[in-house]
Amino acid sequence: MEALTRNFFLYLSKSKMLNHIAQNRGGSFATGKIIGGIDFKCSIPVIRDLNNKGLAVTVDHLGEFVDSADVARERAAECVETIKTISRERLDSQVSVKMTSLGLDIDHELVYQNMTSILETAEHNKILVTIDMEDFPRCQATLDLFKQFKVKYEYVSTVVQAYLYRTEQDVLDLNKFNPALRIVKGAYKESADVAFPDKKDVDNNFINIVKMHLLNGNYTAVATHDDAMINFTKEFVKEQQIPTSQFEFQMLYGMRSQTQLDLAKEGYKMRVYLPYGKDWYGYCMRRLAERPANIAFVFKGMVKS
Ligand SMILES: Cc1cc2nc3c(=O)[nH]c(=O)nc-3n(C[C@H](O)[C@H](O)[C@H](O)COP(=O)(O)OP(=O)(O)OC[C@H]3O[C@@H](n4cnc5c(N)ncnc54)[C@H](O)[C@@H]3O)c2cc1C
Questions:
Q1: What is the pTM (predicted TM-score) of this model?
Q2: From the candidates 132, 135, 170, 279, which is the catalytic residue?
Q3: Phi first, then psi: what are they for 159, rounded to 5°?
Q4: Ligand 1 neighbourhood includes 98 CB (under 6 angstroms)
Q5: What per-residue confidence (pLDDT) applies to 282?
Q6: Nearest C-alpha to atom 33 of ligand 1 is from which residue?
Q7: How many domains is the chain partitioned into structurally?
Q8: Over 60: is that where the pLDDT of 300 sits?
Q9: How far does the centroid of ligand 1 lie from the alpha carbon of residue 199, in Å?
Q10: 206 burial via Cβ count (<10 Å: 0-12, 13-18, 19+)
Q11: Where are the alpha helices (DSSP H) in 151-244?
Q12: Domain carrying residue 180
């Protein structure tokens, strides 16, 4: 039953028609609950509030699978402005970006140029940009882009997904770049040809990858809401005497907010992933697929508004 629900919401997450309807519906009911607002400006008070509570942030302009070059260029320009604003406003925030929002599905040169303008600005302002990992068909292209950029820029990072069979080898290959990596379980619907179907195997691989990356001396963002993964990391870093400066925890905005505060109070670096923008639909559907209870409260708000 759980798998059916998950597949259903992941299927809905790809619907362009529903996305269009959702864009017109606006995101006010989700604002301040699971997204920062419909634009970056609206999200600034949310970031400040999180920073004041001891939480670092990474912002993500929602919108993926862009199929127009003009829209992809607009996305890049917006991201450049966001980085400048973060710096000017002295916000404790990084930026996350999806390659399909910058034109990955359109043209390699387009996404390369767009990302170059973002990373030039990021380098100048010393603000890390993390390339989110999308679905399996885009994984190789995303890693190839990351490797191209990593030899030129310091302030770039990416994500690896524990549900993919290939990830252990990817982490070994990436080690020569000494990259900062965000480690996640993986949010898309993937076939058993490429991804572990069994949650237990995904969890074991998550732990395996966190261990490998930490022991290789690389910066590790442990991005999960799962106590088992969090407690494992806490024990492992203690046992291996890995300094708190070499890793951080990351969680999504609005999920386990008290745990986020508790981790920060315990002295761990805790970063909140804060999405904003009008394209909230696909993001909401993936969160529903993971755990409907996670965002049921958002939909209660929708009915009321
Ligand atoms: C900061 C961040 C960035 C991400 N970036 C990407 C990305 O680039 N690409 C990608 O594919 N995916 C990304 N993800 C999503 C990720 O892949 C998972 O789909 C998502 O985090 C769910 O997995 P989980 O590890 O949190 O726990 P799950 O496996 O979903 O849950 C495990 C257990 O954790 C507990 N739990 C989970 N949520 C809650 C809750 N709200 N309250 C109480 N207990 C809870 C429950 O006990 C649950 O059984 C990101 C996630 C985070 C946190």
A1: 0.92
A2: 132
A3: -125, 140
A4: no
A5: 76
A6: 226
A7: 1
A8: no
A9: 12
A10: buried
A11: 167-174, 199-215, 227-239
A12: 2-304
Q: Whose CA is nearest to atom 30 of ligand 1?
A: 290
Atom of ligand 1 nearest to the CA of 223: 53
Q: Which of 159, 179, 181, 189 is nearest to 285 (CA)?
A: 189
**Torsional class of 77: left (φ above 0), alpha (ψ -120 to 50), beta (otherwise):** alpha
Q: Which long-range contacts (CB under 8 A, 24 or more apart) does 49-52 make?
A: 50/253, 50/272, 50/274, 51/91, 51/92, 51/93
Do the Cβ atoms of 225 and 251 come closer than 8 Å? yes
Distance CA 179, CA 209 (A): 13
How large is the average pLDDT for residues 240-260? Answer: 97
Which residues make beta-bridge pairs with 156? 129
Domain containing 221 — which CATH number? 3.20.20.220
Q: Which atom of ligand 1 is found nearest the CA of 206?
A: 25
Is there a catalytic annotation at residue 279?
Answer: no
Six token digits for residue 27: 């995101």
Alpha-carbon distance of 223 to 174, in angstroms, equals: 19
**3 state SS of 266:** coil
**Index of the ligand 1 atom closest to the CA of residue 161:** 11
Q: How does pLDDT run across 107-133, given as a tens digit for each residue?
A: 999 999 999 999 999 999 999 999 999
Produce one character per residue of 256-277: b if its CB has 16 or more CB atoms within 10 Å, e if not: beeebeebbeeebbbbbbbbbb
Asked if 173 is an active-site residue, the reply is no
